[in-house]
Amino acid sequence: MNASAIPGAAVGSGRRFVGGAALLLRGIALYVRSPGLMLLGIVPALISGAIFLTAYVILVYFVGDLARLVTPFADDWTTTGRNAVRAVAGLAILGLGGLLTVLTFTAVTLVIGDPFYEKISERVEQRYGGTPDAVEVPFWASLRRSAADSIRLVALAVLVGIPLFAAGFIPLLGQTVVPVIGAAVGGWLLAVELVGAPFYRRGRGLRDRRAVLKADRPTALGFGVAVFVCFLIPLGAVLLMPAAVAGAALLARRSLGQPIVEA
């Protein structure tokens, strides 16, 4: 690749990233236009949101103790050095906790609200021409597969989160670059997780979701990172979960080369 092609590729990737983020905005617009249906999706989000918010508040309360637990090597340091390294450790713990909370919240909420979110996703697809290659998936089979895929994705997040947690101790880098990487990883996993319903509707599993989204990774990342950032806002995950499901249906259609202009 010549040097002049590199900036062009970067600009193209940037546009697709922004286009992916815009799919969440379109999901929100659909949410506003169909409040009766979308409000159904808030019920499971409220249930799991209360659980995970409580868990994160507990984490914040005990973060000082946890920071001391993971930094025993600093016990004999000067007060300034010890406090500094434990402040960094606390931030790293909260960052890892935020990543896992957002991903686990999404996984649990999708499982709890499977019938609601399946209906939201299906209604969105009907607006844009339906699903010509749809297959009938029994409810319990869909629920089991959704739960299994969610567990795998959360386990992957834990494996990725551990080295990110360790990297959080690196001065400056751990407080600047690592959070960006964490948001990108979290965004990618959210995108893969949220497009589950439209792919199941087509008889396609987790491996297919990953392969299709990888073909246009900037768009998937744009959507996933936008959702991830919004879910970090207090009550954002609860209020925007139905909109994220609607946006994910559009992402799936776009990734599969199907129209996302209303029929």
CA gyration radius, whole angstroms: 20 Å
- What sequence of helices (H) and strands (E) makes up the elements? HHHHHHHHHHH
Instruction: Estimate the mean pLDDT confidence.
Output: 86
Structural class determined from secondary elements:
mainly alpha
Overall helicity:
over 70%
Strand content: under 5%
Enumerate the spans where pLDDT stays under 50 for 5 or more consecutive residues. Answer: none
How many helix segments? Answer: 11
Main sheet specs: none
Q: Please, how many domains?
A: 1
* Number of strand elements: 0
Q: Which term fits the overall shape?
A: globular
Head-to-tail CA distance between termini: 40 Å
Could you walk me through the main structural features you see in this protein, from its secondary elements to its overall organization?
With 263 residues, the protein is mainly α. The protein has helices at 5-33, 35-38, 42-70, 79-112, 114-127, 139-167, 173-194, 196-201, 206-214, 217-232, 236-255. The chain contains eleven helices and no strands. It is found in: Membrane. Keywords: Amino-acid biosynthesis, Cell inner membrane, Cell membrane, Membrane, Sulfate transport, Transmembrane, Transmembrane helix, Transport. It is a multi-pass membrane protein.
